Amino acid sequence: MSLSIVLPPGFGYVAAGLVSTAWVLGWQALVVSSYRSKSGIKYPQLYAEKAEADASKEALLFNCAQRAHQNTIEHMPLIIVTTLATSMKYPVFAGYACGSWALSRVLYTLGYVTGDPVKRNTRGGILGEFLVVGLLLSSTYTAFELLRSSA
């Protein structure tokens, strides 16, 4: 028995958007690794302790880089699910929204690693939250439309 899956026209945008998130995660991992080396925080310690971060700018920057990466990982299930659901009806929008979200995570990370966590959202990183809401709403609408059309 064979199964064919027909992808909607424009699905390449979805693939590009999703792949861009993988590149961002890889880049963030390199940023974290760099700050880990500079701070001297050894594995398996996930973060510098408060006393370490208070005593060392490098340890604080490591924590900021680590948190930016972790926050991106925490968002990934939501981004993947809503991008794929939205793509069933609106692949170009889904691809652009996902790719734009990935770009916003670069801005988020660059702001965070200044050592001032407030800057994670003041340098364009907040854009990602609007994109998350857009994908959540569009995926919900897409699911509703698919359910309604199959009834």
TrEMBL record:
It is a multi-pass membrane protein. GO terms for molecular function: glutathione peroxidase activity; glutathione transferase activity. GO terms for cellular component: endoplasmic reticulum; membrane; nuclear envelope. Keywords: Membrane, Transmembrane, Transmembrane helix. It is found in: Membrane. The chain crosses the membrane at residues 12-32, 126-144. It holds the Pfam family MAPEG. InterPro entries: MAPEG, MAPEG-like_dom_sf, Membr-assoc_MAPEG. This is Membrane-associated proteins in eicosanoid and glutathione metabolism. It comes from Suillus placidus.
